[in-house]
Specification:
Elements (H helix, E strand, L loop, with lengths): L11 H15 L7 E6 L10 H11 L2 E6 L9 H13 L3 E2 L5 H14 L13 E4 L17 E4 L4
Parallel strand pairs: 1-2, 2-3
Antiparallel strand pairs: 4-5
Helix pairs in contact: 1-2, 2-3
Length: 156
């Protein structure tokens, strides 16, 4: 990974939209879908936007695991925040530059294997986008990771 260098046009958001479409078409309803992204987080030429990508990933219920390919010794950049946002809002994880790829992929596999799917019935249904926040009630040391929003079409 340390040999990767960013150059040229980068349609990051368009590539993620294409990945979500591919996952949607080939989705196994009995398994969790996920995307592993190797990027510096900079998009230069996409037609799609970051919010569109997040909405597509959330609707697919697909977590994004983002491995930052920015050189570890370089200063933090805007792309770092983009990768963090993609991961956090989709229920995935973001990995800092310079991480061992094998260890990162093992972490992703472990996360996918050990995750739980929780569902709940909203007290009142209304169409549109809704935020999600999961908090521990008994042990304040517990940490939960989930997507940050969901869309309800209002159709039952």
């Amino acid at each position: 990974m340390s040999a990767l260098r960013a150059s040229g046009a980068t349609p990051l958001y368009d590539a993620l939209m294409q990945a979500t479409e591919l996952l949607r078409q080939t989705r196994d309803p009995e398994s969790r879908s996920a995307m592993v992204l190797f990027s510096d987080g900079h998009d230069t030429v996409s037609i799609h936007s970051l919010p569109e990508v997040l909405l597509a990933a959330q609707n697919l219920q697909s977590a994004i695991y983002a491995l930052n390919t920015r050189p570890a010794k370089s200063a933090a950049a805007k792309g770092d925040a983009v990768l963090y946002w993609l991961a956090a809002d989709s229920g995935g994880l973001s990995f800092d530059p310079g991480q061992n790829v094998k260890a990162v992929l093992q972490t992703v596999l472990d996360d996918l294997r050990s995750g739980y799917v929780l569902t709940y019935e909203a007290p009142v249904r209304s169409s549109g986008q809704h935020s999600v926040r999961i908090l521990p009630t008994g042990n304040p040391q517990l940490h939960f990771r989930s997507r940050s929003t969901y869309n309800d079409s209002g159709v039952e």
